[in-house]
C-alpha cells in the first residue's frame, strides 16, 4: 500500500491521523489538523452511529405499569429526547425536567429531619447551593430554558456540587451513553419537580444508523399532568373504576376530561392500558420535522 498524503501540507506519511469526528479527513499530525479546523469544521459531520433502543418506564406506576420502547437516534440531543418522551407518554411539556446518570456505587443519602430540611431550604432560597448528602449522579443534564420554569426552584435536591451540569440542547445522547466513566449507568429522566414523575431509561439495544425517533411498543395510558404525584393519579383511576362515583370523584373526572394540561376528553374508563403507537409516531415525525 502506498503512503497517503496529508490533506493540508500534502506531505506523504505511512500513517496519517484521521479526524475523529467525521473519520474522513486525514492529516500528517496534530499541527496540520489544528490549522485545518477553522475551515474543516464547516463541513465536518459526525460519523453516523446506530440508534439506541430505550425502554423507558415510570417505575412507580402500577396496574398497569406505564412504559414505552423508544428508538432514539445516536445524534439526538437530550432536549430532543425530552420532547420524544413527552410525546410518547402523552405529557404536555408544561414543567421542567432533567436527566441524570446514576452512580451505582454512591453512598445512600442520610434521612433528613424536618428542621435540617427547613434550614437547608432557607439557604437554597437565597440561591446558595448546599449539598444534601453524598453525590448520587455522575452527571445532570438540565433544561436549557429553566429560568422560565416556576417548578425549577424545587429542583435543588437534584443539584450537587460534585455533579457536573450540562444543558440538554448542547449534549448528545450517543456521546453520553458511550462515556467511559459511566458506561452502562442507569439513566433517569425526571419530569416536573413538584409531582416528581421519575422515568427509568434502560438501554436495551442498538438499531440502524438512519433511524429517527420512533415508539415501537408500550403500555399504559399517559398520566394526567398535575394529578398530584402517584397517589393523585391512583385516585383519578379509582374515580373511573367506581361503579357510583361520589361528588369528589366526579369533579376529578371532569377536571381530567376538560382542564388538565394534557386533558383527555375520553377519560380513563376501560382505557388504563391505552397506547396508540400510530398517533405517537405521527406526532414524533411532525415534531422532529419542525426541529430541523
Ligand atoms: Zn500536514
Ligand atoms: Zn472532520
Automatic annotation (TrEMBL):
Keyword match Amino-acid biosynthesis: no
Species whose genome carries this gene: Aureobasidium namibiae CBS 147.97
Protein name, entry field: MYND-type domain-containing protein
Gene Ontology MF term list: zinc ion binding
Protein's UniProt keywords contain Metal-binding: yes
Gene3D superfamilies associated with the record: 6.10.140.2220, MM3350-like (3.10.290.30)
Keywords: Metal-binding, Zinc, Zinc-finger
Domain annotation MYND-type: ranges: 6-44
One Pfam entry name: zf-MYND
Amino acid at each position: 500500500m502506498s503512503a497517503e498524503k496529508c490533506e493540508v501540507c500534502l506531505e506523504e506519511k505511512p500513517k496519517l491521523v484521521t479526524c475523529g469526528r467525521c473519520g474522513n479527513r486525514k492529516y500528517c499530525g496534530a499541527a496540520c489538523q489544528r490549522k485545518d479546523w477553522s475551515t474543516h469544521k464547516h463541513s465536518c459531520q459526525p460519523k453516523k452511529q446506530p440508534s439506541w433502543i430505550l425502554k423507558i418506564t415510570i417505575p412507580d406506576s402500577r396496574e398497569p405499569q406505564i412504559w414505552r420502547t423508544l428508538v432514539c437516534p445516536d445524534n439526538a440531543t437530550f432536549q430532543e429526547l425530552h420532547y420524544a418522551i413527552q410525546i410518547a407518554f402523552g405529557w404536555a411539556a408544561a414543567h421542567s425536567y432533567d436527566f441524570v446518570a446514576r452512580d451505582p456505587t454512591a453512598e445512600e443519602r442520610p434521612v433528613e429531619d424536618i428542621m435540617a430540611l427547613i434550614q437547608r431550604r432557607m439557604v437554597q432560597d437565597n440561591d446558595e447551593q448546599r449539598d444534601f448528602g453524598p453525590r448520587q449522579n455522575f452527571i445532570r443534564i438540565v433544561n436549557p430554558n429553566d429560568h422560565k420554569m416556576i417548578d425549577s426552584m424545587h429542583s435543588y435536591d437534584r443539584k450537587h456540587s460534585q455533579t457536573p451540569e450540562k444543558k440538554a440542547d448542547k449534549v448528545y445522547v450517543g456521546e453520553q451513553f458511550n462515556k467511559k466513566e459511566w458506561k452502562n449507568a442507569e439513566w433517569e429522566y425526571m419530569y416536573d419537580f413538584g409531582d416528581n414523575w421519575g422515568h427509568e431509561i434502560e438501554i436495551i439495544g442498538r438499531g440502524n444508523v438512519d433511524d429517527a425517533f420512533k415508539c415501537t411498543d408500550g403500555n399504559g395510558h399517559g398520566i394526567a399532568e398535575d394529578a398530584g404525584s402517584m397517589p393523585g393519579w391512583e385516585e383519578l383511576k379509582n374515580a373511573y373504576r367506581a361503579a357510583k362515583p361520589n361528588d369528589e370523584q366526579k369533579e376529578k373526572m371532569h377536571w381530567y376530561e376538560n382542564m388538565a394540561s394534557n386533558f383527555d376528553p375520553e377519560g380513563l374508563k376501560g382505557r388504563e392500558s391505552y397506547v396508540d403507537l400510530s398517533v405517537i409516531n405521527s406526532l414524533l415525525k411532525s415534531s422532529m420535522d419542525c426541529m430541523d
